[in-house]
Amino acid sequence: MLRSLSSHPARLLPVAFLVVVAAGAVLLMLPVSRTSDSGPVVLPAAFTSVGALTGGMALVDTATHWTPFGQVVILLLIQVGGFGIMTLATSLALVVNHRLGLRTTLVAQAETSVNLGDVRHILRRIVLMTVVIEAATALVLTLRFWIGYDDSFGQSLWQGVFHAISAFNNAGFSLNSDNLVGFVDDAWVIVPICLAAVLGGLGFPVLVELLRRARRPREWTVHTRLTVYGSAILLVFGFVAFLTFEWGNDQTIGPLGPGGKLLAALMGSVSPRTAGFNSVDYGSVGPETMAITDGLMFIGGGSASTAGGIKVSTFFLLAFVIWAEVRAEQEVNVGFRRISSSTQRQALTVALLSVGVIAVGTVVILGLSDYTFDAVLFESISAFSTVGLTTGITSGLPDSAQIVVMLLMFIGRVGPITAASALALRSRHRLYRLPEERPIVG
């Protein structure tokens, strides 16, 4: 059984995530992890473990419910989940054995989406990029908390490190009870966190290629072009939309000055894809903003990144498929490259399966709770896309509905990787072709 798991990434990844989730939940159930022994223990610990590992949602207040030890456990889960469990294990194997076997390489390739021959070198670059980006973000945040808010250096350092790691790994966990609402107009906090989240959401393959050919965009691969240009389009669209619909909302950014509104709109555009921080109360945003946020959360970030969702490249690849069909073209071309039919089918499968999972989760939660459809849909998309944003209903859901949210987070983090790996590895070639027939479409 173990040999069967280790030989197939599509089987090994969910098991590996379950093992780490269980270990994190056990650690969080220890008395040393909690500030109080009153109230439920198992569900908050399990929910937090899943949320931290997947970069998803929090059930209880990280700042008040967990002790410093518990917060360290959460931070480790965030780092392991964002970096990738199998990527981390593969990196450790490199350190210990100085070599990679074929099975280990295949497993790492499933998470990092890099070429087979490049895994060893790229894993080292991934580690270096992670450390550099998180360290730079932590430095800026630490100095800001220390100088600007009169916190002690130790407290400022912990705040800076925690939020830097949470931002780069698109987790959205914060050591403040109101998340980042108190810093909504502080550029020295909002901008570094947004930059770290955007870099983490691009994906390691894109970051590696940008390091190599940042000044030669004509040489970029189709994946990098889709991810970089697509992310830029979505960021600008989200920024303008948030600013437009929330400008006069007195419950969100209405009372802020122009600079504060711009920073809030920046966070409102970056966070849904899928940083998970909030500098405004999403329970008070307008219906237009909520609908746009639903769409941005569903799309998510880049493939093989710390973000969730169906991924930017999947979304824009399907847009090119639709464009080619509208123009009655026989092939789908992106730039000067033709997209294979198998890649098109994989993108369509991932997107439709995601829609199905979210639909089922929404219906089930609606049946288990008394909340409105728009709030539950927002919660389901946020959970599946491992965003972490909420309108405030998470803690008010019954235990059964909270378990459904946990399942959505787990499926959303592991499912797309598993589905893509399974589809890529199961290549069947028929020795015959059936007669063609065209059913009526539309």
Give a short summary of the structure.
The protein has 442 residues and is mainly α. 66% of the residues lie in helices and 1% in strands. It has one domain.
Account of the protein in words:
The chain is mainly alpha-helical. The chain is built from 18 helices and two strands. The chain has one domain. The protein has helices spanning 2-6, 9-29, 42-54, 62-65, 68-83, 85-97, 102-112, 119-148, 153-168, 187-202, 204-213, 222-246, 258-275, 287-299, 312-326, 341-368, 373-384, 399-425, and strands spanning 332-334, 337-339. Strands 1-2 form a two-stranded antiparallel ribbon. Helix 2 (9-29) packs across helix 3 and helix 2 (9-29) runs antiparallel to helix 18. The longest helix has 30 residues, at 119-148.
Secondary structure layout:
Blueprint: H1 2-6, H2 9-29, H3 42-54, H4 62-65, H5 68-83, H6 85-97, H7 102-112, H8 119-148, H9 153-168, H10 187-202, H11 204-213, H12 222-246, H13 258-275, H14 287-299, H15 312-326, E1 332-334, E2 337-339, H16 341-368, H17 373-384, H18 399-425
Antiparallel strand pairs: 1-2
